[in-house]
Write a structure and sequence with these properties.
The complex is a heterodimer of chains A (669) and B (304). Chain A has 669 residues and is mostly helical. Among the domains of chain A are: 276-516, no CATH class; 619-667, no CATH class. Chain A is 70% helix and 4% strand. In chain A, the strands form 2 sheets. Chain A has a two-stranded antiparallel sheet. Chain B has 304 residues and is mostly helical. Helices cover 69% and strands 1% of the residues of chain B. Chain B has 12 helices and 1 strand. The longest helix of chain B is centred in the middle third of the chain and has 32 residues, at 120-151. Classes of the chains: A mainly alpha (669), B mainly alpha (304). Chains A and B meet through helix 15, helix 16, helix 17, helix 21 and strand 3 of A and strand 1, helix 3, helix 4, helix 5 and helix 10 of B.
């Protein structure tokens, strides 16, 4: 091994050590909130920078580097491995941890003497470290330990404002959902270790000999387990509650990267399993596109800015799963080119989504910070009052709407191209299936523009809709700086797609290697000079038009917006969030996602004062999961009789259980 | 390539207002009036560019960016498609997605510029525009997929060359005709023509496009009108390309053929607008979904 390798993984170990030590130091700082705040933010930022510099070179280095801490007496093998696939996920993790730490400096305010700063930063640093360990783990035990640590630390971060009832509820929902997912993952790893003989990932190569039904069992158990964390429809139910409840930099990290660790887990599992049958790929792709359409339709009806963004995360995760399912399907059916395009598209979308969703959550956080409101109907007029923050939000919204020349366009372009390629190769029904997916993708794209223009138009533009919004001021330079980093990267990826695509080729080979015979044909799609030329022409056209207009500039007089002669524009005259999406609700959406309303207005001749309220409940939660768990709880009530509340009875239980286990131990061969 | 680039720009910039003039004139003649001269749109533009501007005190830079993006997008999109037998100056595999999403970019900024005024008129128009495009965009994709399937290429330049002349007698004929009809309907919808929207009304609550630009004035309004004309020409080119003859070899003869076909299309649009009234707003989604189904049918015929 060359020394360069050693510094790579050692750099990551150093980053982990700084994160953990920083977290502990914050706890030691005790109630000195200011000290803990500075310590926490600086160690998190420092560790992220170390981690970034260590992970970046590993992206393109084929092969893996290991460190192991064996403890044979306890049967433990704490091993970490760094390979291109791990580096691919480490980069956004450390990037957003850095931006989040920077952002939190000015975003969070603690009373001068309180434990909360220390606790917050302890969990923040632990979250960063555990996410990194999840993608570095080389052992099922390490993976699940880090996974649990990640779930718990993010749970405590979500319940930062634990005094609020809604936040506690959101936290519990998240905790339950993530642990149901974890149960499936435990099953996956125990089953895998039973086959492979150990929990070491290196030994999981033995899984390649699995028969098809065992493979499918593992795959779908992992899909449920990881899907619950990733927010795959219909397991996303925790996500729209948890993201708005958390502080915004935590939302950015959770939505931007934490849920992506689940995608890492699934991708890593796929490198061990034998090829997945084609129909499973179709199932994943269909789940993905259903989730995308569902998520974006729900996002269009939300009135809470962060909740709307959370549903948009469900949509983007759906798109990523669409790409992954397409990859599996095309690989199983021999559409080589389409398979590679789909996988590249999905991988790039993972990066892209962490960039623009990180940016959008941070921007939404600045809005919340400046106004104290999350309701769209209480914002408005902020682009005038917070020009930089507003413009950055607009930038992120354009990126997530997949508009050229920003990064979202590149990954969606790859997905389209994959669908078209597969559709061109296939015949009859299969071709129609791909075309249908392409058309649904186009519909999703149109709806994203609707959702994003709604968010921006209602929250940032027009007249302020509340006194708080009217008094908002621009965010501090630190907040702006933290948001500018992902924004700049969005532009970079969009303008120079060759760069990230080269970066992706390393993880791509790791993923394709098991099932892919190197054909010699270029793996990556060509972004030829025509792309750059189109951008240049576009830029030239823009510059020319702006130049001509500046040259012809006249004195523009400022008057109120035309309101049929009324000269005092007010927010009461403006279109609201509800009215903006009403038309789409009535004509495009399925009735299951529209808000349920209750009105007290009666048909009386002289009607009494009326009330009107709307609820935007998640249909997957209210129609499927709550009834299901309600039924389960009813059944479980039968077991309450066992709870006698007397110590002697419990001792008896333990005794009986021990006897039974002993008996089972003797009987079992 | 430079010559083709210049030719594209010149044709687009020079010809697009004339199309509007031809449509208006056709409608006037059918209605028994004499009508404005054909070059009235050019005069309108010159007048608007010479005017002062009134800006709403509510607005921000987005309000001024809308018209700029609205005219830049058709300029770039036009470079990706062939003007009849005059090939596209820029093309790469998969540029059809760029074409569709460029118009998404224009819509994003137009809608935001409208919402920037904080007026409910503009909000109404913006909501309608965003919703209708959701329904129109898939049809455009299906049409492109049909053409890609026939031509075996994902490059707009190859997809749109000499379509009917080569394929009308083959099994693709029916699909092509259906696709052309779909594209014509999308042209009407995306450019706010009758039966989707009435470009001549002002301040009616059933409008889409005109109501979004109520607060724009002077040069900015000129840019919007010019951009709308260019968009009409770009979308019209997609339709016209179906019937264009193969290249004669001379670039300028090809351009002349193309111009003639485009003017004929403008007359056609004028005839359609004279012959029918605007649909009720609630019927518009039905028509758009019907068009999607029609394009699906074209695709199924192709795949059978």
């Amino acid at each position: 091994m060359t020394p360069i390798f050693a510094t790579d993984i050692n750099g990551l170990l150093l980053a982990l050590a700084v994160l953990l030590a920083g977290g502990l130091l914050c706890l030691l700082a005790g109630p000195r909130a200011r000290l803990a705040h500075l310590l926490g933010a600086s160690t998190a930022a420092l560790a992220s920078l170390i981690g970034l510099t260590a992970a970046l070179p590993a992206l393109s280095v084929a092969g893996s580097q290991q460190v192991a801490l064996s403890w044979p007496a306890a049967g433990l093998n704490l091993a970490l491995t760094l390979d291109p696939l791990a580096a691919f996920f480490l980069l956004p993790i450390f990037l957003l941890t850095f931006c989040g730490a920077l952002y939190a400096i000015d975003y969070l305010h603690f009373p001068a003497r309180s434990w909360r700063a220390g606790l917050h930063w302890f969990f923040y640093n632990t979250l960063g470290a555990s996410m990194a360990v999840v993608v570095l783990a080389a052992n099922g035990l390490v993976f699940m330990l880090a996974w649990e640590l990640m779930s718990l630390s993010s749970f405590f971060l979500v319940t930062h404002d634990y005094q609020e009832e809604k936040v506690r509820q959101a936290g519990w929902l998240y905790l339950v959902a993530t642990h149901i997912g974890a149960a499936f993952l435990f099953f996956v790893f125990f089953e895998a270790s039973r086959v492979a003989g150990s929990l070491d990932f290196a030994s999981f190569a033995a899984l390649r000999a699995l028969p098809v039904d065992a493979t499918l069992l593992l795959f779908f158990a992992a899909l449920i387990g990881f899907g619950a964390k990733a927010g795959l429809f219909p397991l996303h139910v925790w996500l729209p509650d948890a993201h708005p409840a958390a502080p915004s930099h935590v939302s950015a990290i959770m939505s931007g990267v934490m849920i992506k660790t689940a995608l890492y887990g699934l991708l890593r599992l796929l490198t061990w399993l034998p090829p997945i049958p084609a129909w499973a790929g179709i199932a994943v792709a269909l789940l993905g596109i259903t989730g995308a359409l569902f998520g974006i339709a729900m996002a269009a009806t939300q009135t809470d800015i962060k909740r709307s963004l959370a549903y948009s995360t469900v949509e983007n995760i759906g798109l990523i799963f669409l790409g992954l399912g397409l990859w599996l399907f095309c690989q199983a059916t021999g559409h080589e080119q389409a398979a590679v395009l789909a996988l590249v598209g999905a991988l790039l979308h993972i990066w892209n989504h962490s960039l623009f969703k990180g940016l959008l959550f941070l921007g939404a956080g600045s809005v919340v910070h400046a106004t104290g409101k999350r309701e769209l109907s209480a914002l408005g007029g902020l682009l005038r009052r917070m020009p930089l923050t507003g413009s950055l939000l607009l930038f992120g919204a354009a990126a997530i709407s997949a508009l050229p020349p920003l990064n979202g366009f590149i990954s969606e372009w790859l997905l389209y191209l994959s669908l078209f390629n597969a559709g061109q190769d296939a015949a009859g029904g299969a071709a129609f299936f791909f075309m249908l997916l392409a058309i649904l993708l186009a519909l999703t794209g149109g709806l994203v523009v609707l959702v994003m223009t709604r968010l921006l138009g209602v929250a940032l533009q027009g007249e302020p809709r509340s006194a708080a919004a009217a008094e908002a001021h621009e965010s501090s330079a630190v907040l702006i700086a933290a948001m500018s980093i992902p924004a700049a990267l969005c532009l970079l990826v969009g303008v120079m797609p060759q760069l990230p695509l080269q970066g992706i080729s390393g993880p791509l080979l790791t993923l394709l290697a098991p099932n892919h015979a190197p054909t010699g044909s270029p793996l990556l799609p060509p972004f030829g000079p025509a792309w750059s030329l189109s951008l240049l022409t576009g830029l030239a056209a823009l510059v020319a038009i702006v130049a001509i207009r500046t040259w012809r500039r006249r004195n523009a007089s400022r008057l109120a917006t035309w309101g049929c002669g009324y000269l005092k524009p007010s927010a009461r005259m403006a279109y609201t969030a509800g009215s903006y999406s009403q038309f789409a609700q009535d004509t495009v959406f399925c009735s299951c996602v529209t808000p349920t309303g209750a009105s007290t207005r009666g048909p009386a001749l002289f009607p009494p004062p009326a009330q009107f309220g709307q609820e935007r409940l998640d249909p997957a939660l209210t129609r499927w999961f709550l009834p299901l768990f309600g039924k389960l709880a009813e059944r479980a009530y039968a077991f309450r009789r066992l709870q006698a509340g007397q110590l002697s009875i419990y001792v008896l239980y333990i005794f009986i259980a021990t006897i039974l286990l002993l008996g089972w131990g003797i009987m079992a061969p | 390539m430079i010559i083709r680039l210049l030719l594209h720009f010149l044709l687009l910039a020079g010809l697009s207002p004339l199309l509007i003039g031809v449509i208006t004139r056709t409608k006037a003649i059918i209605a028994g009036r004499q009508g404005a001269p054909l070059w009235q749109p050019y005069r309108d533009l010159r007048r608007l560019f010479g005017k002062d501007m009134v800006l709403s005190s509510t607005t921000t830079w987005v309000f001024r960016a809308g018209p700029v993006v609205g005219i830049a997008v058709p300029l770039i999109a036009a470079l990706l498609i062939p003007f009849g037998a005059v090939g596209a100056p820029l093309s790469f595999s998969g540029d059809l997605v760029l074409f569709v999403y460029l118009f998404g970019l224009a819509r994003f900024f137009t809608v935001l510029a409208a919402l920037d005024t904080g007026s409910s008129f503009e909000g109404m128009g913006a909501a309608r525009e965003a919703t209708f495009s959701c329904l129109a965009e898939p049809t455009l994709f299906v049409a492109f997929i049909v053409l890609a399937r026939i031509s075996g290429s994902f490059t707009l330049d190859t997809m749109f060359k000499t379509l009917l002349a080569n394929n009308l007698q083959t099994v693709y004929g029916v699909s092509l005709v259906l696709t052309a009809i779909c594209l014509f309907i999308i042209l009407l919808a995306e450019n706010s023509r009758i039966p989707f929207d009435d470009p001549n009304t002002h301040l009616e609550l059933t409008m889409i496009h005109e109501v979004m630009v109520l607060d724009h004035s002077g040069p900015d309004f000129g840019l919007i009108l010019y951009g709308a004309a260019m968009k009409l020409m770009v979308m019209g080119t997609l339709v016209v390309n179906f019937i264009m003859p193969p290249s004669t070899g001379d670039l300028f003869v090809d351009a002349a053929f193309y111009t003639a076909a485009l003017l004929a299309l403008a007359v056609g649009i004028g005839l359609v607008e004279s012959g029918m009234a605007r649909l009720r707003l609630l019927k518009v989604p039905q028509l758009l979904i019907g068009t999607s189904l029609l394009s699906f049918f074209a695709l199924v015929l192709l795949l059978r």
